[in-house]
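Following up on my earlier thread - several people asked me to post the actual chain instead of describing it. Fair enough. Here it is, all 114 residues.
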Amino acid sequence: QEQLVESGGGLVQPGGSLRLSCAASGFTFSSFAMEWSRQTPGKEREWVAAVSRFGHTTNYADSIKGRFTISRDNTRNTVYLQMSSLKPEDTAVYYCNTMPRKPWGQGTQVTVSS
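Reply from S.P.:
Thanks for posting it. Predicted structure:
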């Protein structure tokens, strides 16, 4: 069964950092580019970052460029999102997925608040 399980979210103060993880199973992880996106209630899902199959190429949304870093470990079937200099507007549920996309996981909540 194909599965994506996000973790690492939580409550953090503005300016703080978090590292999100996404563990993949049930498919050949290295065959897919991976992405992170996020969603807040009442808004459409926003694409955040992507990483190529072997991690050589990354792309970022302008809203997070310079603050977030996407990476992957194909030996662990895991993709990461290192987030720093967090802002209240980064508050959202964060999701990972393959490219092209599979069914979404449950996401992990990130709340940036003092």
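Strands lie at 3-7, 10-12, 18-25, 33-39, 46-51, 58-60, 68-73, 78-83, 92-99, 108-112. That should answer part of your original question.
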